[in-house]
TrEMBL record:
Annotated CDD domains: DEXSc_Pif1_like (cd18037), SF1_C_RecD (cd18809)
Similarity-based family: Belongs to the helicase family. PIF1 subfamily.
Organism this protein belongs to: Ceutorhynchus assimilis (cabbage seed weevil)
Subunit structure: Monomer. Interacts with telomerase.
Protein name per the record: ATP-dependent DNA helicase PIF1
Single Gene Ontology MF annotation: hydrolase activity
C-alpha cells in the first residue's frame, strides 16, 4: 500500500499486429505489477501473473495512460512501440492512483542527462540482458518538478505523457482540472495524509480483520472510511451507510438498498426469500468487504437480520457469511430512527446490544485526534457534551455565544432545527420574503423516474429555487485549497449566464456550474443527477446535518428529543467564534445510558498496566487475544471520564 511502484489487480494484456488483430493475450484475475528501471534508465512495467512468466513492457514518452475510470479501479496503458495495450481492473482506486502518479512522476523527471537511449531492438540484438532495479521512492524534488511540468503544460498544447493527446487545458474553470493534475488532486501521497490512529485502522482493515472504529465528531471517521474504500478492490467491496446523505458522502449506497430485505420489519423467512432474488443475491455473494458508516443509526434488530441473511444467502456459517465487516460511527451521536405505533413498546436497540455484533469479534478502535475543530477549549466542551455533561464551564461558554455576531458580508448563520418541518418552513418563508425574481434550477436525472430515489440518496434537491440574496450551502468539494468545500456557506450575489454567482464567507466567488452525483444501485447499475451544487441554508434539520462540517451555525436546542441531538448540532461548528447557541439549558444535553456503559466497558478493557504496554511481546499477545485495537492500547489517558 505504501509503495506506489507496486500494484495488485486484474489484468488483460493484448499484443496487436500492425493490422490491429490480437496476436497474443494474457489475462489474469490477480497479477502483480511493478515499475522498474533498466540499467539504461528506461522505465518498465513488469507484470507477474499466475501461471505465466514475468512480462516487461517499456513505458516511454509515447505511452498513453487512460485514467478516466481510475476511481472505479480501472485504467488502460498503451505501449505504441510494442503495439500492446494493458487493461487494468478491480484495482484498489487509491493504489491505482498512487501507481499511475508514480509512473507519471518518474517519467516526467525523465532519464538523467547524458544517458544514452537504447531501443529494445538494439538491446535484443546485442544479446546483452538488461538489469532492472526497483525504482526509488518519489522525492519531494521529483514531485515538485513533475507538478511544475504539468502546470507548464496546462498553458500550452503540448502532449501530456499521460494522455498522449494534444489539447488545450482549461485552467480558469474551477471544475475542470487538467488530466495530469487529477493524479495530484487532494493528496500528494495518500497514506501520508492519515494520522497515526487512522493508519492503524487502515492496516487492520487491509489485514482482513472485522473492525469497528469510533471517535468523537470530527475525528475523521468518514474521511478515513473513504481512504479504506479506496484501498480495497472495488468489485468485491460494498460501501454503505445508514442514511442516504451519509452514503453519498462516502460514494456508496444505503445499507437498506444493498441488503434488499425491505425496512427490516418482515419475518426472517421472508427476508431470506427476498435476499435470494436477483440482483440482491449476486450482491451478497460477490461481496467480500462490507462497509457501514453511521452505524449508530442502524437499528440493532435490522443488523441482526442482515447478519443472518448474509449467512443464509452465502451458505456460510461464519459471522456475516464470511464477509469482512468494517463498521464506523459514534454511538453518542444520533440513534436509530424507528417509528412506533401509539401504545407500541419501544424495542429499539443499538447494534452493539446484539448477538450479531458480538459474534463478529470486532477489533475496536477509538480515534482521538479531532480534525474538524482546532481550538482545545471548544474540543473539551464538546467532549463533555458528548457524554451528557453540561457543567458550569460548558454553560458559561455556550451561553456567552448567544449574543455574538457571526454574520459576515451578507452571509447569515444557518439555523439548526430539531424538527425537519421547521427547517423547511424557515427556508421557504425566507426565500419568499426576498424581493426579486426567482430562478428555478431543475436537476437532470439521467434515468427517467429516478427523481424520488435521488432526492433520498443525494443531498442535492431535484428543484432548486434561488433569488439574489438567498442563503446557500455548497454541496461538493469544488476547490479544496480555495475553501470551496462541501458545507461552505455563501449567498447568491447575481445570476450570470443563467447560473448563480455565489459569494462565500471567505470572500471567494464561484459561478456554480452543474455538477454530477452518481449513486450505485443494488443491481450494479447507477443513477446520476446533474444539478448546481447548492441547497438553501437559512436552516437545516439536525438529522440532515449529521456528518457535515458547517461554516457558521446558530441553534436553539429547546425542542431536542433524542440523546446526542444537541451534541450533533454543536459539533458541526468548527469553532466557538462561528457558533451561536440561544437559550442554552443543561437539560438539553444528555447521553443514552446504554451508550455510556458500552463506552465505559470499552474503556475498562483498554486500561492495562503501563509496563505491559511497553512490553512488545505482551502487547502483541494482548492484541491477538482482545478486541482492542493498537491505537487504543497505546494511549496513556482514559478515553472518557464517565462518572
Ligand atoms: N488526517 C486528516 N488530516 C487532515 N484533515 C482531516 C484528517 N482526517 C479528517 N480530516 C478533516 O476533518 C474534518 C472532519 O472529518 P470527518 O467528517 O471525516 O469526521 P467524522 O469523524 O466522520 O465526523 P462526524 O462524526 O461528525 O461524522 C473533515 O473536514 C476532514 O477532511
Ligand atoms: Mg462522519
Amino acid at each position: 500500500m505504501e509503495n506506489g511502484a507496486c500494484l495488485c489487480c486484474e489484468i488483460n494484456v493484448q499484443w496487436l499486429s500492425k493490422q490491429g488483430a490480437v496476436q497474443r493475450k494474457l489475462a489474469s484475475k490477480r497479477a502483480n505489477l511493478r515499475i522498474l528501471r533498466a540499467d539504461n534508465k528506461d522505465l518498465f512495467i513488469e507484470i507477474v501473473a499466475e501461471k505465466s512468466g514475468p512480462v516487461k513492457l517499456r513505458f516511454g514518452k509515447d505511452s498513453q495512460v487512460h485514467n478516466k475510470f481510475m476511481k472505479e479501479g480501472k485504467s488502460s496503458i498503451k505501449f505504441p512501440n510494442e503495439n500492446v495495450t494493458l487493461f487494468l481492473s478491480n484495482a484498489p482506486p487509491e493504489q491505482l492512483k498512487f501507481f499511475l502518479r508514480t509512473l507519471f512522476i518518474k517519467m516526467a523527471n525523465g532519464k538523467p542527462a547524458g544517458t544514452p537511449t537504447t531501443s529494445l531492438r538494439t538491446q535484443v540484438l546485442t544479446h546483452k540482458p538488461s538489469q532492472y532495479d526497483e525504482i526509488s521512492p518519489i522525492t519531494n524534488g521529483e514531485m515538485e518538478k513533475a507538478v511544475k511540468k504539468a502546470i507548464g503544460r496546462s498553458t500550452d498544447t503540448t502532449p501530456s505523457p499521460l494522455s498522449g493527446k494534444k489539447r488545450k487545458i482549461e485552467r480558469t474553470s474551477l471544475d475542470k482540472a487538467p488530466a495530469a493534475k487529477k493524479l495530484y488532486a487532494n493528496s500528494p501521497i495518500p497514506i501520508e495524509q492519515l494520522d497515526i490512529e487512522q493508519k492503524d485502522v487502515l492496516s487492520a482493515c487491509l489485514a482482513g480483520q472485522n473492525v469497528f472504529f469510533t471517535g468523537s465528531a470530527g475525528t475523521g471517521k468518514s474521511y478515513l472510511l473513504r481512504k479504506i474504500i479506496g484501498a480495497l478492490p472495488p468489485d468485491v467491496t460494498t460501501a454503505t451507510a445508514s442514511t442516504g446523505v451519509a452514503a453519498c458522502h462516502i460514494g456508496g449506497t444505503t445499507l437498506h438498498q444493498f441488503a434488499g430485505i425491505g425496512g427490516g420489519d418482515l419475518s426472517l423467512e421472508r427476508s431470506f426469500q427476498l435476499a435470494l432474488k436477483p440482483p440482491t443475491v449476486t450482491n451478497w455473494r460477490r461481496c467480500k468487504h462490507l462497509i457501514i458508516d453511521e452505524i449508530s443509526m442502524v437499528d440493532g434488530g435490522y443488523f441482526e437480520k442482515i447478519e443472518a441473511v448474509a449467512r443464509h444467502v452465502r451458505r456460510n456459517d461464519k459471522p456475516f457469511g464470511g464477509i469482512q465487516v468494517i463498521l464506523c460511527g459514534d454511538f453518542f451521536q444520533l440513534p436509530p430512527v424507528t417509528k412506533f405505533e401509539p401504545g407500541q413498546k419501544n424495542t429499539k436497540k443499538f447494534c452493539f446490544q446484539t448477538q450479531a455484533w458480538t459474534s463478529c469479534r470486532l477489533n475496536t478502535f477509538e480515534l482521538k485526534q479531532v480534525h474538524r475543530q482546532t481550538d482545545n477549549k471548544f474540543i473539551s466542551i464538546l467532549n463533555k457534551i458528548r457524554i451528557g455533561k453540561a457543567d458550569e464551564e460548558v454553560m458559561n461558554i455556550l451561553r456567552a455565544t448567544s449574543k455574538q455576531k457571526i454574520e459576515r458580508d451578507g452571509i447569515l448563520a444557518t439555523r439548526l432545527c430539531s424538527h425537519t418541518k421547521d427547517a423547511d418552513i424557515i427556508n421557504q418563508s425566507k426565500l419568499q420574503a426576498l424581493e426579486g425574481e426567482s430562478k428555478i434550477f431543475e436537476a437532470q436525472d439521467l434515468v427517467p423516474g429516478s427523481g424520488k430515489q435521488l432526492d433520498q440518496l443525494t443531498p442535492v434537491p431535484g428543484t432548486l429555487e434561488l433569488k439574489i440574496g438567498a442563503q446557500v450551502m455548497l454541496l461538493k468539494n469544488i476547490n479544496v485549497s480555495a475553501g470551496l468545500v462541501n458545507g461552505a456557506r455563501g449567498v447568491v450575489k447575481a445570476f450570470k449566464d443563467n447560473l448563480p454567482l455565489i459569494q462565500f464567507r471567505n470572500k471567494k466567488e464561484y459561478l456554480a456550474q452543474r455538477e454530477q452525483w452518481t449513486i450505485k444501485t443494488a443491481g450494479g447499475g447507477s443513477l446520476t443527477r446533474k444539478q448546481v451544487p447548492l441547497k438553501l441554508a437559512w436552516a437545516f434539520s439536525i438529522h440532515k446535518s449529521q456528518g457535515l462540517t458547517l461554516d457558521c451555525v446558530e441553534m436553539s436546542l429547546g425542542r431536542v428529543f433524542e440523546a446526542g441531538q444537541a451534541y450533533v448540532a454543536l459539533s458541526r461548528a468548527q469553532n466557538l467564534e462561528t457558533l451561536r447557541v440561544l437559550d442554552f439549558k443543561s437539560g438539553q444535553v444528555w447521553a443514552n445510558p446504554d451508550v455510556l456503559s458500552f463506552y465505559k466497558n470499552m474503556d475498562q478493557t483498554r486500561i492495562i498496566p503501563l509496563g505491559a504496554i511497553n512490553n512488545k511481546k505482551v502487547l502483541g499477545a494482548m492484541r491477538k487475544k482482545s478486541t482492542i485495537g493498537k491505537s487504543k492500547l497505546m494511549m496513556d489517558k482514559p478515553i472518557l471520564s464517565i462518572s
